[in-house]
Amino acid sequence: MTLPVTALTAAICALLMLFLIFKVVGQRLRTETGFGAGNDPKLDMVRGCHSNLIENAPIAILLLALLEMTNAHHWGLTGLAGLFLISRVIHIYGMHQHFADKTIRLRQLGVVGSALSILALALWVLYLFITVNLVN
Q: Going from the N-terminus, what domains does the chain have, and what CATH number goes with each?
């Protein structure tokens, strides 16, 4: 059994994670901060971008995989995976905008999009559990 939507989503999340790791390391080198955020707000922000992705991506990827293994609708999964990934990118960009005192809206949009995609995936799993296991 192959899981192409899950695999692509995980690969893109991995690339985003590596990008954010380099942003954190770069800021650590610039500020000579070996541990924590020190007193540098930008380091705190890039660490927040990284940790937020690390907190959200595993559950989204796991839910995608579970649904894909049940042969759930491919385009529905692709749409939710796309929403999650776009929301993660918007969140990262929005964090940088918020840090630059421009706007918080993109950060908020990224959070809402990520949460809605995870909510939809979780509800889909619950729906399948109820209709396949409890009703039949």
A: 4-134 (1.20.120.550)
